[in-house]
C-alpha cells in the first residue's frame, strides 16, 4: 500500500504522516520529501536538474517491492512531482490525500511548531500553491477544519492501512519480533 500525504508547508502533513506510521507500527516505511531533498541530496527545490523526484520514486518502489507499506509525505508540487507520482499511484495499491489548509492557517501552524524552520511568512507565500491536486482517481481533500485526530484516523481508515497486515520480515518473519510476540512461558528466573 502506498499512502501519499501532500499539502503546503505548515499544513500538518509531516506530523500526520509520522503519527500514521507510529500507529501502524513496523512494516510501514516513511519517506519525507524534505528529508530526502534537503538532508540526503542537499538539493534546492525546482529546476530541471533536480534529482529528488526520481530518487523518491526509486525509494518508494524499493520499499513497496520489499513488502513494506509506504507513507510518502511532502509538498510534492504537481508541476515538479506529478509526472513521477502518477505512475506510482497507478502501479501500486494507493491512497492519496491533500491537506487543504489556507495560507493564513499554514502560517499560524508553522509559528506554533516546536521547532519552526527559519522562514518568514513572505517566503512561505512564495511556496504556497492553492489546491495543488494531482488529479488521480480517489484523491481525497482533507479540510483544515478537521482535527488532527480526525485527520489521522480518516487517513488510516479510508486508505485501509489501519487494517493492513505487515508483510515485511519485521514483524511478520523477523525472529526477534516473533520472540517478543510469543507468550511468556512462566516466571522469569
TrEMBL record:
Q: Which domain of life is it from?
A: Bacteria
- This protein is called what? AAA domain-containing protein
Alphabetical list of Pfam families matching this protein: AAA_33
Q: Which InterPro entries match?
A: P-loop_NTPase
Amino acid at each position: 500500500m502506498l499512502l501519499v500525504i501532500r499539502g503546503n508547508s505548515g499544513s500538518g502533513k509531516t506530523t500526520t504522516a509520522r503519527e500514521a506510521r507510529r500507529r501502524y507500527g513496523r512494516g510501514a516505511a516513511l519517506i519525507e520529501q524534505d528529508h530526502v531533498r534537503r538532508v540526503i541530496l542537499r538539493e534546492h527545490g525546482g529546476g530541471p536538474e533536480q534529482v529528488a523526484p526520481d530518487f523518491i520514486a526509486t525509494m518508494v518502489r524499493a520499499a513497496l517491492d520489499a513488502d513494506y507499506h509506504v507513507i510518502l509525505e511532502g509538498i510534492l508540487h504537481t508541476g515538479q512531482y506529478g509526472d513521477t507520482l502518477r505512475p506510482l499511484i497507478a502501479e501500486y495499491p494507493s491512497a492519496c490525500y491533500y491537506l487543504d489548509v489556507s495560507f493564513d492557517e499554514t502560517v499560524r501552524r508553522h509559528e506554533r511548531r516546536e521547532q519552526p524552520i527559519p522562514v518568514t511568512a513572505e517566503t512561505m507565500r512564495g511556496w504556497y500553491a492553492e489546491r495543488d491536486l494531482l488529479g488521480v482517481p480517489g484523491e481525497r481533500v482533507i479540510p483544515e477544519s478537521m482535527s488532527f485526530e480526525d485527520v489521522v484516523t480518516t487517513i488510516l481508515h479510508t486508505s485501509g492501512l489501519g487494517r493492513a497486515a505487515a508483510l515485511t520480515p519485521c514483524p511478520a518473519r523477523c525472529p526477534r519480533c516473533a520472540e517478543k510476540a510469543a507468550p511468556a512461558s512462566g516466571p522469569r528466573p
